[in-house]
Amino acid sequence: MKATLKDSLVQFTQSGQRKIDRWTAQHRCVEVLFDDAGAFFNANTLAELQQLQR
Fold first, then answer.
1. 20 to 30 Å CA-CA from 42: which of 6, 34, 48, 54?
2. Residue 23, number of CB atoms within 10 A of its CB
3. What is the distance between the alpha carbons of residues 22 and 19, in angstroms, rounded to a whole number?
4. Taking CA 41 as the corner, what is the angle to CA 33 and CA 15, rounded to the nearest 5 degrees?
5. pLDDT (tens digit, 0 to 9) for every residue of the chain, 54 residues total?
């Protein structure tokens, strides 16, 4: 993601918006598919991090 989009994202979130699809719709973007979805595992808790480390 381009660093130049930072101000746009900050303005978007400060306006109370949270739906990432609404923000990305305002910009040119391309969806990219990856063969290994596990490479992008999202760990938000200690348990999820431990699962990732196994």
1. 6
2. 17
3. 6
4. 85
5. 889 999 999 999 999 999 999 999 999 988 888 898 788 888 899 999 998 888
Do 22 and 8 meet the contact criterion of CB atoms below 8 Å apart? no
Determine the 3-state secondary structure of 5 from DSSP. helix
Identify the burial level of 18 via C-beta atoms within 10 angstroms of its C-beta, where 0-12 means exposed, 13-18 middle and 19 or more buried. exposed
DSSP 6: H
| The two structure tokens encoding residue 15 | 């306006």
51: Cβ contacts below 8 Å, ≥ 6 apart: 43
d(CA 54, CA 49): 9
Distance from the Cα of residue 6 to its chain's centroid: 13
